Amino acid sequence: MDLSAINPVLLIASLMVAATPLLLAAIGELVVEKSGVLNLGVEGMMIVGAIAGFAFSVETGSPLLGVIGAAICGALLSLLFAFLTQFALANQVASGLALTLFGLGLSALMGQSYVGVRPPAMPRLDLPVLSDLPVVGPILFSHDPILYFGIALTAVVWAVLKFSRIGLILRAVGENHDAAHALGYHVVRVRILAIMFGGACAGLGGAYISLIRVPQWTEGMTAGIGWIALALVVFASWKPWRVLLGAYLFGGINVLQLNLQAAGVAIPVEYLAMSPYLITILVLVIMSADKSGAPASLGRIFHASQ
Amino acid sequence: MKLTKLLTSAAVALGLATTAMAEDKTKVGFVFVGPVGDGGWTYEHNKGRLAVEEKYGDKVETVFVESVPEGPDAERVMTQMALDGADLIFTTSFGYMDPTINVAKKFPKVKFEHATGYKQADNVSVYSARFYEGRAVQGHIAGSMTKSNVIGYIGSYPIPEVIRGINSAYIHAKKVNPDVQFKIVWAYTWFDPAKEADAAKVLIEQGADVILQHTDSTAPQAAAQAAGNVITFGQASDMSEYGPLPRVSSIIDDWAPYYIARVGAVMDGTWTSTSTWDGIGAGMVGIGEISDAVPADIKEQALALKASLASGEYHAFTGPVNKQDGSAWLADGETADDGTLAGMNFYVEGIEGDVPN
């Protein structure tokens, strides 16, 4: 056992990287669910974002364009879900599952010629003085821009949901779509926009994996992170800051347990391996004791004639 | 009403037609643990499947299901394949062992082939490759080339196949570099690129300058490439797209000849339940080209080691070797028997840490 082999600064820096895809996807899904729609297609939108972002950045040579492309493709794919559930009034659970399956297949097809290709590197923040500071520099000031965007997005989503008129409308639509409709709000329009926002975020999260965290394209490379994001939204009681906490806990403990394993800590590896799931659920369940429930219209189909 | 009727009869006709066609075709099913595009383990099995199609053309029909979780879901997939008329089913991951045996009991006429396991039945063959021979060559190169003397090892699950690989790599790294240390991380997955990359990064952060992996994707290669000054080895597939650095060599699984032979045996009715375990000599395990990043003398030694493993003149587990607790395992000159190797659940002397249960 050699704990000195673990560098806490590098550990914190890499846990932030590990948490970001989960955070992005979960924040997007949170907004979708707040509007009363349950989209189980997060995994599918993420994987399409992963390949779209990869392809865009390889073809254009610009990682930033890749990321934007990923968000657009994620949003486009989510439109399919929006069409099925908002116009065709299809079952949301089934449509979401279909979206995941479709996304996995589509991404495998799109990615055929991108296996083994190296993407252009995303530039990291490099502020003179600040990035060179010991401890604080590597943790706070030398990441890629998307990571900061993820944190900023959490703050924005929180503020918009809590303080703005748009947030109020979104929540009204999610809590009681009939009442919102009676008040003259366009339930379907609000929901479609929320679904697209969720799709863009999921696409972004996927691109973060294929462009920054790994960086490469491999079929099925999101390997279930979309599902964890879905679970995270529930355990975080639909609250943005708790989503951030959960994502950092999950990503953090994952990186920490790998570090502990490599350092040879005398905790049985099987406990270490399950610890990210256990601890994240435990912490969030304890925190959600304050009875904050799901949006009341979550998963219910709305039609103006009803 | 009329349309429905028409459609139904069309469907029935189509069904009859396909059954009639299927009668003289041998149907072969493959169950894969990852996607066929993983660039590693499943990719090579799929290449074997394609080789079967190419060899037998119209006489064979292959089907596959990818990303099948190990456990009960695998049973469902195999059952469905058997119900759909498969004559032979290859199940290509260790964790399919019990599901394969269970499903095989229900379909005594269907032949099953399970990779890397040890449970045989009248209609279940087992087959595997002696990857540990390739690990010996990797260990030799790794031990010779490490500057930090720390070698990182990404394990999937603590099963005999993986533990054999760790031991073999360690023995041969230690032989050329007595100061070498192995840091082992268990990912508890065969395929999760993000997690595999995280594991590689952690090992590199903790001082490893060589990464050996026993997981299926190329993610650790990409992570090592991003980190720089780290060497890696392709696992299961050549992964040559990451050469000449970080990937300096690889273990390549070549399943095609075996799959062709077994499908042929089903076709001519000579299939029997067998246990196959071939290595470098038989061509089931290949060593990918050793890149120019490896100094010429080390490359020569590695190739000599490969040749002696292939000819059978040298066994990767040759005594004296002690177990981790210091007790004697192999006496001087003694070689390990297949039974011990197949069920290997202990580290050899010098490796730190415990084998997880």
From TrEMBL, chain A:
Compartment(s): Cell membrane
Major location category of this protein: membrane
InterPro entries on file: ABC_transp_permease
MF annotations from Gene Ontology: transmembrane transporter activity
Origin superkingdom: Bacteria
UniProt membrane topology term: Multi-pass membrane protein
Keyword set includes Membrane: yes
Sequence intervals crossing the membrane: 6-25, 37-58, 64-84, 96-115, 135-161, 192-214, 220-238, 245-265, 271-289
GO CC terms of this entry: plasma membrane
Record key words, sorted: Cell membrane, Membrane, Transmembrane, Transmembrane helix
Protein name: ABC transporter permease
Source species: Shimia litoralis
Source taxonomy: Bacteria, Pseudomonadati, Pseudomonadota, Alphaproteobacteria, Rhodobacterales
UniProtKB/TrEMBL annotation, chain B:
Location of the ABC transporter substrate-binding protein PnrA-like domain: 25-308
This protein's name: BMP family ABC transporter substrate-binding protein
Keywords: Signal
CDD domains (UniProt xref): PBP1_BMP-like
Pfam families per the UniProt record, alphabetical: Bmp
Claim: Signal is one of the keywords in the record: yes
The keyword Zinc-finger is assigned to this record: no
InterPro entries the UniProt entry points to: ABC-Purine-Binding, PnrA-like
Native source organism of the sequence: Shimia litoralis
Signal peptide as annotated in the record: 1-22
An annotated GO cellular component: plasma membrane
